[in-house]
Amino acid sequence: MLSSHSDQPSQTKDRLSFSRSVRAMGAVLFRPRVVLFVALLGLYLYAIVDARLIFQLRDKIFLWNLRFFMGFTGQSGALLEWSDSLLVQLCYRGWPGALALSAITWLLFASTIGFMNASGRANIGGTWIIPGIFFIWLFGKYSFHTSTIVGSTMAMALANGWARLPVKRIWLRLPLFAAFSAAIYYIAGEAGFYCFAACCIIYETLAEKRRLSGIWMLLIGAGVKFGLPPALASLNLTAWTFHPPFLNDYLRIPRGWHVTLFYCYFPACALFVIYRQTAVSWIKSLGRKSSETPQDKDVEQERATGVCGRIRWMTETLLLLSLAAAAGLYGLDRDRKALLEIDYCSEHQQWKDVLEQAANLPPQQYTPYVNHDVNLALYHTGHLPDRMFSYPQKYMALLFQEQVPEFAMLRKPCDLLLELGRVNEAEHKALEMMELWPTGGALKRVALAKMIKGQIPAATVLLNVLRDDLVWGRWAEGYLQRLAEDPELASNEEIQRIRQLMVTEDDLYLYGTFTQENEFWYYNPPALLSGLLKKNGRNQMTFECLMAMYLFNDNVQAAVETFSYLDNFSYPSVPLHYEEAAMIYGTQHPEEIKQTPSGIFIRGLKISPATEDKCRRYLELVRRYRGFKKEAEPDVVRELEGSYFQYYYLSRCGDAP
User: Fold this and answer.
1) Taking the complete model, does pTM exceed 0.70, yes or no?
2) What 3-state DSSP class applies to 3?
3) Cα-flanking dihedrals φ and ψ of residue 600, to 5°?
4) Rounded to an integer, what distance in angstroms lies between the CA atom of residue 468 and that of residue 656?
């Protein structure tokens, strides 16, 4: 009884301390400057960075079920990868990802302010600014791994909770520290653990002056660091969990020096706050005037909180926003954003937007993937035969002849092969993507190929897996319902169209070869397309893609020989680039030109007067410059801009020695 009576004042003090901590935390959460900064950060992520492009670059498979979650429970730090996958999925529609990232950042700021205030025994401003500027800079890079923000937020939230624990007895605090350390090490990995442990030990040793407790915490931290990994290994959790193929690769990727410095900032800031507050108190004690009256203190406080205080607050806020704007403008990777915007528009079949974005892209930034998207957009808008050379044609990337080095980009040849009717090859690309960079989109493509081929049971299995994907779940649910109502999908126009074009015989050996090591299959795209056209002469996509490859390769003779298929398509007039190629062929084979009262004909193709005029200018430039490309280029571009004559001249003529 005596013991319980003696503990009562201490328990009351602990409860009062806890209630004060709750009130202080509420004040920290809703600081106007923090709220304003976080709101602008969310707007920056949504409108400037465009969170959808984060998904476009970093998409990876994520299934919202327990089995998938258990795959991340086998090793320390893996749960951060699960959270990263979730946040990337939320970025698919833009605003949910921006909102989630802003909320996590808000929690980090509040935890940092709360911990630093508790360490310095004062209301200290500005300790959250450096992490805020850092995040604005990194978010503009698009490849920023969100495990950094989640791990640091968890570490600082636990550290803030530790600093505000109502329990003061060492024999209770040490077991709690051990439990917190083990939890943060398991969930957030080594970086989060080091940050949390360092902050707690600094707080305990320097802020609370409990040096013995700090020594014990240091020993406990070392025990967790060296004891937890062997304990996890002995449990052998990896034997009964599913490991996504990319998980180990992510865990091995170094986060970079900037991330290391970021984690080091928090314990370093805690040291600064503690020693700064000590120095300030010491200086004030030396300069305190004995004549200072309570009235003087009231006047000073009124000045600080009056008009001068408001002006100072506004000035500091404007300075902060200026720093944030500078970090956002400097950190934003505009080149990568432009490429991602084109990729996003192509993925969502926004073909006009692809062409508009590509028109503003400098030629030196063109990649094979941009060329692929531009030519595909030209086909779908009906302008591949007449506007193809209005855009830089650096790569004929409609079909990739070699291995695609960026695994996520395997979806581009996969989608094109599917449209062309090469379903088996498209399925192979999708399966290759599932092995190398698994995404929900890759699983969707495998399921679609199975449905087109009539392999409904296999497709149903894949769709039942995909229904738990946050992005493609509704798509999978829709097809499962269609299969229940119409197992053959006879009413699905997209699938029926591809089935009509689908190659049903194994003929790939006619169009390619294996490497000497028999590792990779290299096929000849023109031969593949030519074979498809011979099987179905009314496949307009195959025809235009084949003609595009012939023109790109300066093979005007093959292009002219393919004109026999033109009558199968309802072009209102002969496409412009086909006329231009025919005229170039005519200059090389004058015997093929037929002059009639109604005009010039080549292989039965009537040439328009405008194309005749361009050809005369082309021949004049050839005679004038005699193959000197550098000298001729300005005039060729000015006289023949956007025509096949321009492309043919500049690609065929080399520089004179």
Assistant:
1) yes
2) helix
3) -95, 140
4) 62
